Each structure stands twice: as C-alpha cells, then as structure tokens.
C-alpha cells in the first residue's frame, strides 16, 4: 500500500497541527487559514499577522529581513 506525502497510515492518530504564531508580536492565528503574510528568511518560514504586516509593508516589499524592521 502506498500513501501520499504528508499522509498518515497510523489509523488517524496523527498529531494536531501547531497553531500559526506571528514571528513579530506573538499573536496566534484564529482559524485554519489566516490571511497573514508568509516570508521565507534564511530557509525558515515565518508568518506575520495582519497588523504587523501593515505596519511594516514597505520593508516587506523591499525584501528586508524582519530583523531590520
């Protein structure tokens, strides 16, 4: 039997996904698909809430690492 990538053959006892947390302010996402900004910095995926994304829009568009803003 083959399984799809990310699939589970353990009878449905897979761990629950971790909540998405803003890398800047620590806010937790509500719901499974937040409308947050996702950035890959040095190979690591980072998420930013709507508020932090709006406050730092120019830096994000300028592709500055979040350490700069």
Could you characterize what this model shows?
- A two-stranded antiparallel sheet has the order 1-2.
- A hairpin with a 2-residue loop joins strand 1 and strand 2.
- The chain has one domain.
- It is built from two helices and two strands, in the order ββαα.
- By secondary structure, it is an alpha+beta fold.
- The protein starts with 36 loop residues before the first strand and ends in an 8-residue tail after the last helix.
What is the count of DSSP helices, taking H or I runs of 4+ residues?
Answer: 2
Task: Kindly report the spatial arrangement of strands forming the biggest sheet.
Answer: 1-2
Mean pLDDT: 80
Give the strand content: 5-15%
Largest sheet: 2 strands, antiparallel
Number of domains: 1
What overall form do the CA principal axes indicate? elongated
Helix content: 10-25%
In terms of quaternary structure, the protein is single chain
Q: How would you spell out the order of helices and strands?
A: EEHH
What is Rg? 16 Å
> Stretches where pLDDT falls below 50 for ≥5 residues?
none
By DSSP, the count of extended strands is 2
Distance between the termini: 49 Å
Classify the secondary structure makeup into a structural class.
alpha+beta
């Amino acid at each position: 039997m083959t399984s799809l990538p990310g699939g589970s053959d353990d009878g449905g006892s897979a761990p629950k996904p971790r909540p998405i947390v803003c890398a800047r302010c620590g806010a937790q996402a509500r719901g499974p698909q937040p409308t947050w900004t996702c950035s890959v910095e040095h190979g690591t995926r980072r998420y930013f809430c709507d508020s932090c994304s709006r406050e730092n829009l120019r830096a994000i568009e300028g592709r500055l690492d979040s350490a700069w803003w």
